[in-house]
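Input/output pair, single chain:
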Amino acid sequence: MRTDDFDYVLPPELIAQTPIEPRDASRLMVIDRKSGEIQHRRFRDLPEFLQPEDLLIYNESRVIPARLFARKSTGGRVEILLLRPRDGTTWETLVRGKHVRTGLELELLQGSAGPPTGAMARVVGMGVRGERLLAFDQPVLALADQIGATPLPPYIHTPLENGERYQTIYARTSGSAAAPTAGLHFTPELMHRLRAIGVHFGFVTLHVGLDTFRPVTEEDVEEHHIHQEHCTLDPHVARMVNETRLAGRRVIAVGTTSVRVLETAALAAVGGDEQAPQCPFQTVAAMDGFTGLFIYPGFRSRAVDAMITNFHLPRSTLLMLVAAYTGKELLDRAYAEAIERRYRFYSFGDAMLIL
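Output:
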């Protein structure tokens, strides 16, 4: 399967630069995989397509203020973007600046042009794709909360007035460098309406890294090695998933991150053997670790019956994941229709419900 098959041309003006208000006023494309029918609705109409005892699985990861600013001993300024932790004080990062080599000491600043904070970091390693491994002299998440800024995806050029608008309303566990954007459409009122009709909620965690925005560069999809991301499915939510599936009800993943958690946990339930038969009493197993699961057409889904997702970048692993559930032909038709009808794309854009 060629990566070129997942390319498409998007008019730049369709890249949403600001979030729509209220959150659930965004458009919702509803795709029926069996009939191939496509409907065009609003996200607030979601309850019309769900049923009592459906289980929505949300990713509760919270975006951290991952942009930090520092200066070298020579006075030169650098910008640090936190990617993923090795431990509480050592992080993989991207560093924008000249001559950032192993051994370099960096003094953290209060904002891009603020005074020194007294906190320090040292470059202790280099990555193959330009990453820098930084050792900080204090816990990083607490430091970022004090002096960091919320990063936005590279295709968003309009400053965000309210940083909470790049968080889901249920975000609780800090660790992401980017938001799990399918969840941005939910409002408290909409979630109350869903509960009122008997829809259940479960929460997982997958900390999103910036690699999610990087296009696949290999010519063949199968040659790509996806980035590792930390995820958690606790025993209580695993039991909810297993009971829902056993009762013949639907498990609906909110976002590609939730899909990856659930399908990773489903493979964990069979010892990682993709060919093993699925046990009807245990669809998923509780887990806490890293996933490198790459989902693309041909993947056998074990845990996810339906999903909510946004519209994704060309040649991205996220687009390939969605194609694994819709089929390539139906997804191509959906995206062509979205462009024709002037849907808003990417992080602050509109949503898709795949049934």
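The helical segments are 140-147, 188-196, 235-246, 256-268, 317-326, 328-340. The mean pLDDT is 93.
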